[in-house]
């Protein structure tokens, strides 16, 4: 485990595997933590040999949970940029799952010097509508913050199932709620528009039976769409071999 202080008393932490440059930086989704989701893939023979940082965003996993932080997508991206700069990393390959994909897009748009290429794993790229009882960010964002903190967190934790709950229970409650609200609201311009306009190599991995909305437009803008079979949303867990092969085969270095 490593840590870097991004402002007085606030640290982002990660699990690191040594290796060659350029580094790969792995980002988790909402209510998750990078090492539990990516460790098996990072250890796969197709992906070993590269410096790999499984980073936890502020509020999640082993990173700090400052209650005064906004936990917006831009805030997450800016905090990550500070951490990467203090670590001494520039032009890394960023691999982001779900909400981590949205943060990766915003990072590339706001801090282009930090990002060599993007691998987006079934990412959130469009605003959505909150709805009580809906899975993921939509259900969380349907609460008011006070209600979520008083009773909503426990209900969500009970309903998500044991796998997701294992990491969600480590999340700061404010972090989980505010991140979900901002993810549902999206950025301005949207994450999709930012992704379309980036001029770096971009790969989007998706489950075989769930191609992304607007795939033709994404492909026309140079985004490589890669279908990974036998997977749901957690591609790197559901099919480690397929995920590793999809990442390793991309021509991402520029």
Automatic annotation (TrEMBL):
Q: Which PANTHER family match?
A: HYDROLASE, PUTATIVE (AFU_ORTHOLOGUE AFUA_2G14860)-RELATED, MONOACYLGLYCEROL LIPASE
Q: Which InterPro entries match?
A: AB_hydrolase_1, AB_hydrolase_fold, AB_hydrolase_sf
- What is the protein name stated in its UniProt record? Alpha/beta fold hydrolase
Listed Pfam families = Abhydrolase_1 (PF00561)
Origin organism is: Lentzea rhizosphaerae
Leader peptide range in chain numbering: none
Which keywords accompany this UniProt record? Answer: Hydrolase
In this protein, which residues make up the domain named AB hydrolase-1? 25-128
Question: Is Transmembrane given among the entry's keywords?
Answer: no
Q: Name one GO molecular function term.
A: hydrolase activity
């Amino acid at each position: 485990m490593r840590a870097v202080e991004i402002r007085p008393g606030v640290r982002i932490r990660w699990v690191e595997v040594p290796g060659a440059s350029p580094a790969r930086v792995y980002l988790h989704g909402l209510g998750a933590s990078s090492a539990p989701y990516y460790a098996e893939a990072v250890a796969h023979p197709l992906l070993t040999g590269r410096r790999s940082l499984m980073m936890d965003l502020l509020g999640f996993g082993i990173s700090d949970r400052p209650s005064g932080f906004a936990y917006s997508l831009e805030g997450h991206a800016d905090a990550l940029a500070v951490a990467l700069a203090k670590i001494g990393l520039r032009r890394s390959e960023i691999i982001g799952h779900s909400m981590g994909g949205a943060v990766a897009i915003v990072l590339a748009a706001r801090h282009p010097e930090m990002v060599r290429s993007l691998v987006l794993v079934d990412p959130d790229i469009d605003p959505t509508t909150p709805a009580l009882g809906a899975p993921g960010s939509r259900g969380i964002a349907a609460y008011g913050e006070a209600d979520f903190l008083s009773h909503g967190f426990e209900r969500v934790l009970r309903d998500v199932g044991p796998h997701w709950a294992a990491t969600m229970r480590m999340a700061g409650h404010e972090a989980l709620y505010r991140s979900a609200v901002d993810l549902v609201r999206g950025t301005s311009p949207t994450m999709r528009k930012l992704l379309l306009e980036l001029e770096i190599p971009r790969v989007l991995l998706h489950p075989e039976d769930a191609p992304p909305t607007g795939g033709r437009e994404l492909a026309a803008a140079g985004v490589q769409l890669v279908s990974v079979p036998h997977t749901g949303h957690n591609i790197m867990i559901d099919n480690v071999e397929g995920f590793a092969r999809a990442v390793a085969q991309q021509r991402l270095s520029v």
